[in-house]
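Table 4 source record.
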Amino acid sequence: MERKNAQSYLEDSHIKKIALAYEKYETVPNFAKVVTIKDIAYNNFSLSIPLYIKYSPQEGEVDERSVQIRYENWRELSETAKQSFDKLNAMVEMEFKEYE
């Protein structure tokens, strides 16, 4: 999955990976797990992915960015989200004014 502007998108390669895991119907470490109804019952019938897939970064996948870089990235994404919410609120306000 790829994140752009704090949004997640499935690209063609991601969709193919999901479809292949489904077709093969086998466990793929860090991605897919075949479970039984008993396993699901044990988890109170929750299908929450983290209950079944435990992600562990593969060698070379460790995020080695500094705390400062991560913080700056977070601030940028937060500002983008704020601007999007401001635009949305302005559009909603305009819609309400039309009905007054």
